[in-house]
Design brief:
322 residues, alpha/beta, 2 domains, three-stranded antiparallel beta sheet, rod-shaped
Length: 322
């Protein structure tokens, strides 16, 4: 416990000591005066004689301590931390099996998700195709995050593994890579980031890049949870790439695996309305933050209670308060 005015506590100690000393001296003088006048002191129980005054005296340091404005730190739970929204911008995200198309539906759902977040959550945006690029660093300026979401457009292939590595690098502040193929495994100390979450919007059609499961395991080791949102339908659709019509369908298996490896959840969405609803069920981390709570009111209440009890007992047992 700390005090905004610690000097008052010194005054409280001195005044309390003076009050106790004065009370003891007063009782002795009273007994001496009665003896000098030839009267014997009325025999009373020590409790009945002194308890009311003890309660009144006890109220003094409690009240003065309250004036010192004591504070205590308590852990307050809240939703906080960092959320990185990772958008699959591969050509398959232009498919129209989710109206108006997969990417546009994902953008709309993501914007609603950002708008629902408290200002204690920093939101960043990255896009991934064959490569991954951070387009908005995590910020509490949610309007900036929404603007970054609106700039997303489809092109290229899909590398979810690359997206996870870039997201981890953004969260940890250091480059994150998997060992080269054939090289001995290495241990990367990324720290522990339980308040960070990666939310992936993708159809799950992986076309190459770093191993997705290995990247997800790195995230899990760093305490980062990945939530995945499936964009598209199992029936799929077609997209035109370089004059060719290519079939594309939602791959829920990969997205489910990535989420489960990190302790996250896969959120299926078959149409635009369902996709928007799925973002509302994304579970962010609850963290705790220590906040100072002023205790003046409890001390004042305790002092008032002591004064009241002392007064009532004094009237009942002695016929007076003092």
């Amino acid at each position: 416990m700390t005090f905004l005015h610690p000097a008052v506590t010194v005054v409280a100690v001195l005044l309390t000591a003076a009050a106790i000393t004065g009370y003891v001296a007063l009782q002795r003088r009273r007994d001496q005066a009665l003896a000098a006048a030839g009267f014997s002191a009325v025999k009373k129980s020590g409790v009945r004689r002194h308890l009311p005054y003890a309660l009144l005296l006890a109220a003094l340091p409690v009240m003065l301590t309250g004036l010192a404005r004591p504070q205590a730190e308590i852990a307050v739970p809240r939703v906080a931390g960092t959320v990185l929204l990772a958008f699959d911008i591969s050509n398959s995200m232009s498919a129209g099996d989710v109206a108006p198309n997969r990417l546009a539906a994902a953008q709309q759902a993501a914007k609603g998700f950002v708008e629902d977040q408290p200002d204690t959550v920093d939101v960043g945006v990255l896009v991934f195709g064959s490569e991954a690029l951070l387009t908005q660093a995590p910020t509490d300026d949610h309007a900036a995050a929404i603007a970054a979401i609106e700039r997303v457009s489809p092109s290229g292939g899909t590398s979810l593994g690359k997206a996870i590595l870039v997201a981890l690098g953004t969260i940890t502040g250091k480059p994150v890579n998997l060992p080269a193929e054939g090289a001995a495994p290495t241990t990367q100390d990324l720290g522990y980031w339980p308040s960070a979450t990666i939310v992936v919007f993708s159809d799950g059609e992986e076309t190459g890049g770093p191993d997705v499961q290995a990247a997800a395991e790195l995230a899990a080791a760093a305490g980062v949870r990945i939530q995945t949102v499936g964009v598209g339908t199992a029936e799929g659709g077609t997209v035109e790439v370089d004059g060719f019509q290519l079939a594309t369908a939602l791959d829920e298996t990969l997205l489910t695996t990535v989420a489960q490896v990190t302790g996250g959840t896969y959120h299926p969405a078959g149409d635009a309305a369902a996709l928007a609803a799925s973002t509302g069920s994304i579970d962010l981390r609850l963290t705790t933050e220590k906040e100072p709570i002023e205790l003046t009111a409890p001390f004042a209440a305790a002092a008032l209670l002591l004064l009241t009890l002392g007064g009532l007992l004094g009237v009942r047992w002695n016929g007076r308060i003092v």
